[in-house]
Design a protein that fits this description.
Order of helices and strands: HHHHHHHHHHHHHHHHHHHH
CATH topology of the largest domain: Annexin V, domain 1
CATH class of the largest domain: Mainly Alpha
Radius of gyration: 30 Å
Number of helices: 20
Largest sheet: none
Strand content: under 5%
Length: about 325
Amino acid sequence: MATVRPPDKATQALLLILSLEEEAVARVLKHMEPEDIRLLHELAKGEFSADSKSLITAYQSFLSDARQPLIGPDEGRKYIERLAQKSLGREESKNILEGKDHTGSFTDIERRNPQAVAEILSEENPQVVAAILTELSPAYASTVIGHFDQTLQNQVITRISRMNEIPGSTVHALLRAVEEQLSELEADDAKSVDGMGRAALILQRLPIADTEEVLTTMGEEDPAMAHKLRRAMFCFEDLENVQGRGMQVLIKEVSNDQLLLALKTASDELKDKILASVSKRAAEIILDDLVAMGPVRLSEVEQSQQEIVDTALRLEAEGKIVIAGRGGEELV
């Protein structure tokens, strides 16, 4: 049986590089000579064994050749502390690492609905809100902040960025106050209702003329609410229900840039329906432009999709297109 030779040093280096995450690789490459980077690139083109045995050999060789400790004194402890605080929040990570009973800590708050927590905190002084949010994990805190209005968001983030320390007694007092208010909310056995969704379902079953009258009247009193309700009633993917030659009529009302952006996240079914409504040459151009299009902001895509939806709803109200499943009538 032939003996398998261990990989040479250059190949071992390549194996180590390929086993790291991209961010770590980027930092490593900054310290390498151009000739070494070119050598790794050439090796990557050829055949080499990337099995677990070869990778283990590469790591063993690297550790054997290392002349300095990979982790300095006390660095490991500090690294774990930073990761724990980043993931769990300052108080919770401290309790866990010190072996304390963390029942009743801010972790309990994170089990609550972020919107309910945001509603309670929005009544507090921004400095108090900032102090509380520093004790929550970043992921949960960002969700809570997302439910604040823009003014409160700015005030809270500004105060958090200026904080250096918070007295422990203050932290525990804030914890108790928030927990009490949340408990009072839970005691009020309220039933959750998706009012927006239910209103949209009801309007979808009304005659189109009646629906437009309701939304127009609502728009005069509360434009934002009317806009949200329109979006809840009809989304971009619902355009797949446009009947007959209606898609051709709709596309004529839409600009090319608008259509391209909207198709960026569209389903294959909707893309096929839209492309089937234009000439073969136009469909080829659209597909080529989609492939050539670079990354775009999701908000821009959603805006274009909503503009096309608004156009479709207008055309439907004018009787120029028919969308199946709307208006409370069956198609025959």
